[in-house]
Amino acid sequence: MKKSLNNLFAIFTGLFLTTLAYAENIQFSANSMTGKVGSTSDSTTLTGEAYVLTDSMELSADEITLSGKDFRYIEATGAIKGLIKDTEMDFSAEKLKYDRVTKLAELSNNVSLTDKKNNVSAKAQMIEYNQQTEVAVMQIEVELKQKDNICSGAYAIYKKNEQLLELSGNSQIKQNNDTFRAQEITLNMETQEISLDGRVKGSITEEAKSKDKAKEEKPKEEGPEDE
């Protein structure tokens, strides 16, 4: 049941007070809105083309709920798309939970996360992203792409600031035609250095290197002799 105008005014007031509590403004829109006001917490649910904009995040989904004291928590479901402005991270998923105080986002079900600044894209069934530390923890069917690297595993930690990726559980990295497998793999995305640990396997294609070597060894054509 939709709330009365007085209650809706109270909800809008609560959203305005959120600006005071976290120094962060909230704007929103949707096809419909329901809400409740309590003594310790408020709750507002936006349904149908729901959209929320804060100073640090832009979010759209089929349904978005703002709850907790000063609307600390944001939950979303269905066709979620968003942008974390501070860290330039795009994301999509089917479920999201976000804490505006701890800046921790929990994404689940067909999750995509893109680091626009470093041209890194990742997919997994679950990703937990800490906006303060800029670390993403990924689980289940993990795949991450960067430059010529296609990385996969059951579990991964992506450290954005250090440009470091740690893989475990059926870990694999493909670099063009080369493949590296191990229980644990660490990739330095800046230097492209790879560290392998536990049941290490790999295959390296020498074709490209052989072609380069052949070019180097090919004798130069002699020009006309000096008279």
Structure notes:
A hairpin with a 2-residue loop joins strand 11 and strand 12 (178-188). Strands 1, 2, 3, 4, 5, 6, 7, 8, 9, 10, 11, 12, 13 and 14 form a 14-stranded antiparallel sheet that branches. It is elongated, with a radius of gyration of 25 Å. Residues 1-22 have low confidence and may be disordered. It is built from two helices and 14 strands. The N and C termini lie far apart (102 Å). With 227 residues, it is mostly beta strands.
Radius of gyration: 25 Å
Task: Output the number of helix runs.
Answer: 2
Provide the low-confidence segments as ranges. Answer: 1-22
Which shape, going by the Cα principal axes? elongated
Main β-sheet: number of strands, strand sense, barrel status? 14 strands, antiparallel
β-strand percent reads over 45%
Number of strands: 14
Average pLDDT value?
83
Name the quaternary structure. single chain
Tell me the structural class.
Answer: mainly beta
Helix % is 10-25%
| Distance between the ends | 102 Å
Series of H and E elements? HEEEEEEEEEEEEEEH
Q: Would you spell out the secondary-structure blueprint of this structure?
A:
Layout: H1 5-22, E1 26-29, E2 32-37, E3 42-54, E4 57-68, E5 73-84, E6 89-99, E7 104-115, E8 120-130, E9 135-146, E10 149-159, E11 164-175, E12 178-188, E13 194-197, E14 201-203, H2 207-217
Antiparallel strand pairs: 1-3, 2-3, 3-4, 4-5, 5-6, 6-7, 7-8, 8-9, 9-10, 10-11, 11-12, 12-13, 12-14
